[in-house]
Target: Elongation factor P
Amino acid sequence: MLDYNEIKEGKIIIYENEPFEVLTSWVFRKQQRKPVNQTKLKNLITGRIAEVTFHDSDKVREAEIEKREAKYLYSAKGEIWFVDPKNPKNRFTLSEVLIGDQKKFLKENTLVTVLVFVQNEEEKIIGVKLPIKMDFRVVEAPPSIKGDTAAGGSKQVKLETGAVLNVPLFINEGEVIRVNTETGQYVERTENKF
Model:
């Protein structure tokens, strides 16, 4: 059990019998009253955001989340297929809604971390985490323009997965770039050639 002041960013707790990730947490005291923890929680099953205030007498359970490795296979008809890399017979599908915006960074044979919520001997997949940084080939890019790049100009390019991204002007078609999958931003150009 977690006390009200132990409910911090990044923790996954049970609230209303469902797993919630703590997005923000702020412990403060209102005038002469007892301290409270004002939080913003994200439901890991529905994606709903809730603002909840925990008082000093409140206690919550930390959610039991297992992390398992899986390999992305393909997407079809709103479903995304994965396989257990240790046992190719164990294939499973998740909805595009559960994956969310991360879908645009899924490449075939990418190893991902699957988050499994365990409650009362029942298991439910509640999310997928991609590697934080991944390399992608640029398949479409407008031509580079010589000129003032000191001002930090950018252009939009299309990646091999179909994602569209803002990158510096010097990035060309056919190059491989590294992208932060959490923020969806360009990190650097790599020397890798696929």
